[in-house]
Write a structure and sequence with these properties.
Layout (H helix, E strand, L loop, with lengths): L1 H19 L3 E10 L2 E9 L1 H24 L6 H19 L4 H19 L5 H28 L18 H16 L8 H4 L5 H9 L3 H10 L1 H6 L3 H21 L3 H21 L3 H28 L12 H4 L1 H14 L6 H15 L4 H27 L16 H16 L1 H8 L10 H4 L1 H22 L2 H11 L5 H25 L2 H27 L1 H19 L1
Antiparallel strand pairs: 1-2
Helix pairs in contact: 1-2, 2-3, 2-8, 2-13, 2-18, 3-4, 4-5, 5-6, 5-23, 6-9, 8-13, 9-12, 9-13, 11-12, 11-17, 12-13, 12-17, 13-15, 13-16, 13-18, 15-17, 15-18, 17-21
Length: 563
């Protein structure tokens, strides 16, 4: 309830900043020594306050949900502590205009995410957590390199960088920030850790994919938007985001794990945000970031109830007809999928439809336009597929082995507030952020294009199912193998990081970290004396005659030298 109170407080504070166009820049000096200052800097503007309020809203509902969901877990106190650390590091990242304090929150998110992915301790969760933490540490490396470049400006506050557009250093800084954002938001070629992080408990996935960790990269790019648009690198980011959106949509179509389908959906929407960011509309990107946080958190929480009632089974082929047994939870899940598709009058409609119309009006080449339209259709496609498998199919024979339990009142009440905001308050947030409207001129059929795609996806879904059933075994195996494994990025990352990377790190430790002098000289002398001592110990302990012989030998030598 404390987080819920903080949500209302920060939300009204952000309304105050929007209305009066104010922001607060706070510097706290810890100590100074000669000319070295240790200062912690905090920035409160409407964007950071609005994002913090949404983090508190979603976190409060997820923690209430976790009290019931993790009730029978032996380590639930550790789980709740790690979740609170996760929220703390994300807020530290949001309010920081200083790149060092951003690094503290950035690195903290990676560390706590590693602990949460490893929460169910098994070989699979260990390998998933290892790939997650290595790729996140790669993002930390890019942030550290940008810190080194920023030493040329005398300050680590990125707000001051807007006055140095003529320096070549700024391009290097922006390139490092861009690479760090790609690692955290799991764009190509750093996409493989996102589906692997599904080894964590469902409340963790809900928090990670809605308002923390994955969105941190997009938020950092929104903060650096003025510097980013001053250089001509938006073209390359547009190519990466188009390919990632297309790849994640294809993977979601061929995937059967429910949580991984939602993870690929998150990956697709992150690419969607990067695409609109490349067009210079950072306010639209931030608006969609907030709306995405609402419905994606509810999507994971409702999916968690479905999975829990199916005896922790996540395979959608073993589900079916759940709307008859879990009606309210199934209805929430359908609402979140409709919001994902941008169905009219849901919260995502006011952001996604606005972005879609702006994209159609923008001057882009055929490559970007084609991938954007196809990826947009794929979003409808995998949403219809999940609804078909979970709600429309007959109840599977395998499910008679499982036990449909109940819809817990606490779990339902924890989702009720965000569901009401998601359904009824989308227009409110649009009027709040876009009080100055931009004039969008489109023909009538282009206005209805998104709705036409939705109905086209229904027909295409059943046609594709018949097509895949008609293929022989080789082609169907190729489709499943290539499209469901992230274009084999998954094998490359796991093979490299879990095998070759550890093999190379052993040699680097042996010959570089330890050093050849220490390893070959000091260590060998230590082992030489150790072996001599053990040999002499064996001799003296096992042979009394030898001991007497040596004693008389030394006595003879001493007697000889005295004369």
């Amino acid at each position: 309830m404390t987080y819920l109170f903080l949500f209302f407080m920060f939300f009204f504070f952000s309304l105050f900043c929007i209305y009066f166009n104010n922001y607060f820049f706070i510097e706290y000096l810890f100590f100074y020594l000669n000319s070295c200052l240790l200062v912690y800097v905090i920035l409160f503007d409407w964007m950071s306050l609005m994002f913090i309020s949404f983090v508190f809203l979603i976190s409060s509902m997820i923690l209430i949900y976790s009290l019931e969901y993790m009730n029978f877990d032996f380590n639930k106190n550790r789980f709740l502590l790690l979740m609170n650390f996760f929220i703390m590091f994300m807020i530290m990242l949001i309010i920081s205009p200083n790149l060092i304090s951003i690094l503290m929150g950035w690195d903290g998110l990676g560390l706590v995410s590693f602990c949460l992915v490893l929460f169910y301790q098994s070989k699979k969760s260990y390998s998933s957590g290892f790939v997650t933490v290595i790729l996140n540490r790669l993002g930390d490396l890019f942030i550290i390199i940008s810190l080194i470049w920023m030493m040329n400006f005398g300050s680590w506050n990125f707000l001051f960088l807007n006055y140095f557009f003529n320096l070549n250093y700024l391009f290097n800084i922006m390139l490092m920030i861009l690479l760090a954002s790609l690692t955290k938001s799991a764009q190509i070629p750093f996409s493989s850790w996102l589906p692997l992080a599904m080894a964590a408990p469902t409340p963790v996935s809900s928090l990670v994919h809605s308002s923390t960790l994955v969105t941190a990269g997009v938020y950092l790019m929104i903060r650096f938007n003025e510097i980013f648009m001053s250089f001509n690198i938006s073209f390359f980011l547009m190519i990466i985001s188009c390919l990632t959106m297309f790849m994640s949509g294809l993977n979601a179509i061929f995937e059967f794990d429910l949580k991984k389908i939602i993870a690929f959906s998150t990956l697709s929407q992150m690419s969607f945000m990067f695409m609109i960011l490349c067009l210079g509309k950072f306010d639209m990107c931030f608006f969609y970031l907030l709306m995405h946080a609402l419905f994606k958190s509810m999507m994971f929480l409702s999916a968690g109830i479905l999975i829990m009632n199916m005896n922790n089974n996540q395979d959608i082929r073993k589900m079916g007809g759940l709307i008859n047994y879990l009606p309210f939870c199934s209805l929430i899940f359908i609402f979140t999928l409709m919001s994902l598709c941008g169905f009219p009058f849901f919260c995502s409609f006011y952001s996604k439809d606005l972005i879609f119309e702006y994209f159609l009006m923008f001057n882009l080449n055929f490559f970007f336009f084609f991938f954007f339209i196809v990826s947009f259709i794929l979003t409808f496609f995998y949403s219809i597929r999940v609804i078909y498998y979970l709600m429309m199919m007959n109840f599977s024979m395998m499910n008679y082995l499982f036990m449909i339990k109940f819809e817990s009142k606490i779990l339902i009440l924890s989702m009720l507030l965000i569901i009401l905001i998601m359904i009824f308050f989308g227009s409110f947030f649009m009027w709040l952020m876009f009080y100055k409207f931009e004039f969008i001129i489109l023909e009538f059929y282009l206005k209805l294009l998104a709705l036409m795609f939705f109905f086209f996806s229904f027909w295409f879904f059943f046609e594709l199912i018949n097509f895949l059933y008609s293929l022989n075994y080789f082609f169907s195996f190729f489709f499943l193998f290539f499209f469901s494994l992230m274009w084999n990025l998954l094998f490359f990352k796991i093979y490299f990081f879990l095998n070759k990377f550890l093999f190379l790190s052993f040699f680097s430790l042996k010959f570089i970290e330890v050093g050849w002098i220490e390893y070959n000289l000091n260590l060998n002398i230590f082992f030489l004396f150790k072996n001599l001592i053990s040999f002499s110990q064996k001799v003296f302990l096992n042979s009394y005659k030898l001991y007497i012989l040596v004693f008389f030998f030394w006595f003879f030598i001493i007697f000889l030298f005295n004369f």
